[in-house]
Amino acid sequence: MLVVVRTVTTLGRLRDVLSLTAGDRRIQTFFTCDVRSRSLLAAGVDEALAGLGAPVLPWRDAVSMRFDLALAASENDRLVDLDAPVLLVPHGAGHQKFYPGTAVVSGLNPERLVMGGRVVPAAIGLPHAAHLERLARVCAPAASRGVVVGDPALARMRGSRFRDGQLRAAFGARDKRLVVLASTFGPDSALGRLPDLPERLVGGLPVDEYQVVVVLHPGVWAAHGPWQVRSWLQQAAAYGVQVITPYEGWQAALLAASVVISDHGSLALYAAALDKPVVLAGRGSAVTVPGSAAALLAETAPVWDVDQRPRDQIDAAIDQYGAGVHGQVMDLLAEPDAHGEDCARRLRRLVYGLLRLKEPADPAMFGPVVAPAVSEPAIPATVVGAAIQRDGVRIERYADLGHGEPRGGLEYRHLVADLRTASLAQLCSASVVVVDDHAVWSTKGWPVRAAEEVARWPQASVLATVVDETSCAVWAGGRVTVLHADEPVDPIVLASLAYVRLTMLGRLPGEDRVHLGRRIIGVVAVAR
Predict the structure, then answer these.
(1) Angle at alpha carbon of residue 424, lines to 235 and 386, rounded to 5°
(2) How far apart are the first and last CA of the chain?
(3) What is the Cα Rg of the chain in Å?
(4) Distances (CA, A) of 69 to 62, 66, 350, 358, 456
(5) Are 288 and 298 in contact (CB under 8 A)?
(6) Extended beta strands in 76-151, E state
C-alpha cells in the first residue's frame, strides 16, 4: 500500500485511515510525496515522516512500481501517474471551501478527478450523503466512485469522548475551563484577524480557573516556519498558554475543550460536531461554500467581540450553551455515528475491498485519542487580588500581561514574581518573590538567605518557595512558615494567601481557607 502525503494535514488524516490496517502483517505500507507538484504548505512533511520512522519512496520510484492500493487526501498530486487503485479522502472536515479565487470546491477539482478521459480515483470516501450530491454536481463522471463512509477524524474523537476527563487533566485543566483557540492560515483566520488574541486570553482570564490552548493549522507552521511561530507566541507560552505542535494534539484539545474560539477552519466544525460551544473570530470567509455546514455555523454561532472582556464572553458561551444547539451543523457534516464504529466499519470494508483482501476478524475501530506531551511553565509574574469572606479568602490571579487585572471588589492587590523567569521590572514591583530553594527551605540557614533575598527587592515583603504539590514555605517578618493545602493546588497561591493575611492581620491563622473559583481549599500554617 502506498500513502501519498501532500502536507502535514493530509498525513494526519491518512494516519486515521491507516490505523484500520495497523497490525495486519499481510500489508506493507510505503509513503511518498509528489515533489513535482509540491504544495506551498508542504514544509514539515519530511520531518513528520522521519518522526514516524516511515519507509519513504522517492516519487520517481513510486510511479514506477505497482501497488495494490494508494491512499491520498488531496486530488492535487499527480495521482493519475500511479499504477494503483486510488482511494481519495478529504483532508479536512469534508468539502466546505472553494480554492481561493476560484469556484472550485476544495477536494473536488474536476480537472484533477478526471484526467485523460478517465476518473482517477477508484473510490472517493465521503463523510455525508450531502457531499455525494455535491460531487455529482461538480463532477458527474466521478459520482459513481463516491462512497459515503463518514469522517474518520470525527469518528475517532467520538469514540474517545470517554477520555475527556483524562485529557483535561493532561492539559492541566482538571478543575478549570479549558479554552481552545484554533486558527487556520491567511488574513481571514482567527490570528489573521486577531493576532494578539492569545495574549488577551491569558491576560484576561484567572490562571486558576482557565487554561488556554492554541491549535494552529499545520499550514501556519509550514508557511512561516516553527521558529517564527514559536517566536510570535513566546510571550503567551511563557504565561501558561499551551501551543500544540502541528503533528499531534488537536483532537485531544477539542475533546477536552470547554469552549472553542475558531475561524472558518475544520476545527470549528469538529467542535460543533462534538457538541462544544463555539465562538467565531469573524463571520465566515469568502472561500466558504454556500449551504455547507461551515456556512451554517457561520450564520448561527456567536462572534468574538474585541471590545468585551474575554471572561464575560467565554462564560456566556459556556453557561448559555444548550446541548444539541449545533444539531443542524452535525447533520450536514457527517453521517450519524455516536461512537465512531460505523465509520471505522465502512472505511475498513472499503480499504480491504480495494486491496482484495479478506478483512480481519476483529471489530473495526480507530485508535484512541491520546494527550500530547505538554509542560507547565513557571509563569513570570501574576497580578493578584483578594476578597475577604467569612470562611476564608477568595483569590484571583491574572498573568501580568497588561490585559487583565483582579475584578472589581477585590482588594489587597499585589504582584507575585518568579525569580527564575520574571523581568527585573516585575521583581522590583513584586510584593511576593518566588525562589527555587525547595531543597533547602527547612535548613537553619534558610531564614538568613530569605532575608538577604528580600532585601534585594524594594517592594517585597514575602519570599516563597514550593515544598511539594500541596505546600509552600514563606518567609515574612523574620520567620519561616509552611502552609499546607488539603488537596493539590499551585502552592504559590498559598503565598498570596499569606501576603493577604499578614497585610490585614499581621499574622497567619493556624487554619484557613482559600477560594479559587468553585474550589474551596483548606489550609494549615505551621511555623518553623
Answers:
(1) 75
(2) 68
(3) 27
(4) 12, 9, 11, 14, 69
(5) yes
(6) 86-88, 114-115, 118-119, 123-126, 146-148
- Which candidate, 259, 270, 257, places its Cα nearest to that of 320? 259
Contact 29, 67 (CB under 8 A): no
Written as nine digits, the cell of 461 is: 515583603
What is the Cα–Cα distance from 383 to 385, expressed in whole angstroms?
Answer: 7
Coil, strand or helix at 319: helix
Q: Are 118 and 85 in contact (CB under 8 A)?
A: no
Q: How many CB atoms lie within 10 A of CB 526?
A: 13
pTM of the full predicted structure?
A: 0.92
> What domains sit in the chain, N to C, each tagged with a CATH number?
2-151+338-355 (3.40.50.2000), 155-333 (3.40.50.2000), 381-527 (no CATH)
Partner residues linked to 177 by β-bridges:
210
**What grid cell was written down for 522?**
483548606
| pLDDT tens digit at each of 528 positions of the chain | 999 999 888 898 899 999 999 989 999 999 999 877 766 666 788 888 888 899 999 999 999 999 999 999 998 889 999 999 999 999 888 788 887 778 888 888 888 899 988 999 999 999 988 889 889 988 999 999 999 999 999 999 999 999 999 999 999 898 899 999 999 888 888 999 999 999 999 999 999 999 999 999 988 988 898 999 999 999 999 999 999 987 779 999 999 999 999 998 899 999 999 999 999 997 766 678 888 888 888 888 999 999 999 999 999 999 999 888 888 888 888 777 666 689 999 999 999 999 999 999 999 999 889 888 888 888 999 999 999 999 999 999 999 987 666 766 789 999 999 999 999 999 999 999 999 876 666 667 777 888 888 889 989 999 999 999 999 999 988 888 999 999 999 999 999 999 999 999 999 999 999 999 899 999 999 988
Torsion region of 275: left, alpha or beta (phi above 0 gives left; psi -120 to 50 gives alpha): left
The residues facing 223 across adjacent strands are: none
